[in-house]
Amino acid sequence: xxxxxxxxxxxxxxxxxxxxxxxxxxxxxxxxxxxxxxxxxxxxxxxxxxxxxxxxxxxxxxxxxxxxxxxxxxxxxxxxxxxxxxxxxxxxxxxxxxxxx
Amino acid sequence: xxxxxxxxxxxxxxxxxxxxxxxxxxxxxxxxxxxxxxxxxxxxxxxxxxxxxxxxxxxxxxxxxxxxxxxxxxxxxxxxxxxxxxxxxxxxxxxxxxxxxxxxxxxxxxxxxxxxxxxxxxxxxxxxxxxxxxxxxxxxxxxxxxxxxxxxxxxxxxxxxxxxxxx
Lengths: 101, 167
Known about the structure:
The structure holds two protein chains of two kinds.
Chain A: H1 5-25, H2 29-54, H3 58-88
Helix pairs in contact in A: 1-2, 2-3
Chain B: H1 2-22, H2 26-46, H3 50-74, H4 86-109, H5 111-114, H6 128-136, H7 140-161
């Protein structure tokens, strides 16, 4: 059995779905944050796999940019979490219900 | 050999990803996330992207995870009692299973397209020189935009964290 593009795409889909499950079923904001990172990595994996099978390096550059944006997102996201902790003293997602309709 | 490596890395990444979202302690899930990131970096090496594998380890397994662990320890996070209603939990599981099913079906249905590109990699593919060449010629504009974005993220993070009223 040789490894084909579809195997990588399936693995990427599974990892992405695990990330979705984490976001949906957990209540701790930091864990939800980590599940988001997991989803982003799954998408990166499919980008790299498709770049490899098309022989086009642009797919790898996209991943480079995604990693940069993810770094910015982590910095701002964790700052928001710390501000929330100062304000409410909790990391439970239900404390973030102020803007809930 | 490549097949064996792929199966090993894929299984361990799925296993550690499942552990990330199921372990009650946030520190343990952060450590399992490191394992997932290393497995994905290994897959990048298999996919002829050594530079991205290095960036993955440095940025994700290094910087991002250190930041997350730092925040967890700084805030002295205890376990949150997660009282999740059974309906909500099963809804999450159903959505996940549906998502996996739909992506399996979509990938299986599109094999005609996917068999196409199994040719050998071009010379220098995924190397620093090739990617740098592209980055500083064709993709110079997005590169500059990303640098501004990173600057904004630094300023934004400091502005959010600073205590209200102190200068």
